[in-house]
Design a protein that fits this description.
Blueprint lengths: L1 H14 L1 H16 L10 H26 L7 H17 L5 H25 L4 H20 L4 E2 L3 H8 L1 E2 L2 E2 H19 L1 H11 L1 H6 L4 H26 L2 E2 L7 H11 L11 H20 L4 H26 L1
Length: 322
């Protein structure tokens, strides 16, 4: 067993040596640069980074599967807003138990993800168009439900999910560990995981081999919706309110984490282990830019360049294989 674990670790390091190196270089720079050296490696800042990247990695877990299929999900940011606002409203407006509110928020994400999956699996409409439409629908519903104003929740029980601690570790990080384990098991140890890679690699060949491509697409987009619903509830808890503007641009950070982590936009290849490193890079990059007081407008430019470089590396890799 020990030998097998060591072998898996060595293989993981070998597969992700490039992005691990990039993460280390980024961390070393922020650790020694005069403006950030006294802040970056503090206990408070490290936990702050981990708490912030948890929501992004929730989305990235579902997005990894979607992109391996050769698709994309633009609706996850809006699902964050809708699920967070409704969950907060269940507590603040209807006095429902915290657990019921959390469950309703996640179910809303599940419903939107399932709607995406049904349309994508039953038609030939590109996932980009389908999820672009549901992105606007979910965002609009969030504004309609809230009237454009935050839904505030001040109970400590609500705040625990996103801003609490378990044994000194932020609650979202604990949840994230379980989500990553579940996602890794699905992708590496189940029939569904094998089918995701098969459909992403060659959908027609997968269908001829007896795989229900429609079922795979439905399940993957539903899972992406579940992850977005969970992210929305956790984020609403961390901000003490459900906000219709929450999740703006979150889909871009999730896609960036997946692509930087080595998942091919062409579909058929990618690992959740790479996505974890990609999420850490995006999180540390965001944190570093904030510590350096870089204008938020320029932060968009930097992240755009990072995504473009990651896609270009993927292009070169696929060209070499070809």
């Amino acid at each position: 067993m020990t030998t097998r674990i060591q072998k898996n670790i060595k293989q993981y390091l070998k597969d992700n040596i490039g992005i691990i190196g990039a993460l280390l270089i980024l961390c070393i720079f922020l650790s020694i640069f005069p403006k950030t050296s006294g802040v970056f490696l503090t206990h408070k800042n490290i936990f702050n980074v981990l708490r912030q990247i948890s929501s992004n990695l929730f989305l990235a877990c579902g997005m990894t599967m979607v992109i391996i299929l050769g698709g994309i999900d633009l609706s996850v940011g809006s699902i964050i807003a809708l699920s967070g606002c409704v969950a907060a409203g269940c507590v603040a407006r209807y006095n429902l138990p915290i657990f019921a509110a959390i469950l309703i928020g996640i179910l809303i994400g599940t419903a939107v993800g399932m709607a995406n999956g049904v349309v994508i699996s039953k038609t030939t409409i590109p996932p980009f168009i389908v999820t672009l439409a549901t992105m606007n629908v979910a965002k609009g519903l969030a504004y309609v439900y809230t009237g454009g104003s935050p839904v505030r929740v001040v109970t400590k029980q609500w705040q625990f999910l996103g801003a609490g601690y378990i044994g000194g570790v932020p609650t979202p990080v604990i949840i994230l560990v379980f989500v990553l384990i579940i996602t890794a098991i699905i992708m590496n140890k189940t029939k569904l995981g094998r089918h995701i890679y098969a459909v992403g690699g060659n959908s027609q060949a997968a269908r001829f081999s007896g795989i229900s491509t429609a079922r795979v697409k439905l399940l993957v987009h539903t899972y992406s919706g579940i992850m977005a619903g969970l992210a929305g509830v956790v984020l609403a808890s961390r901000m003490y309110s459900g906000q219709p503007t929450a999740g703006d641009g979150a889909e871009m950070d999730a896609i960036a984490a997946v692509v930087v982590g080595g998942t091919s936009m062409a579909g058929g290849s990618g690992k959740i282990g790479g996505t974890i490193i990609g999420g850490l890079i995006i999180g540390v990059l965001n944190n570093g830019l904030n510590l350096l007081n870089v204008n938020s407008f320029w932060q968009y430019v930097v992240k755009g360049i990072v995504i473009l470089l990651a896609v270009f590396v993927d292009y070169l890799r696929n060209k070499k294989k070809g």
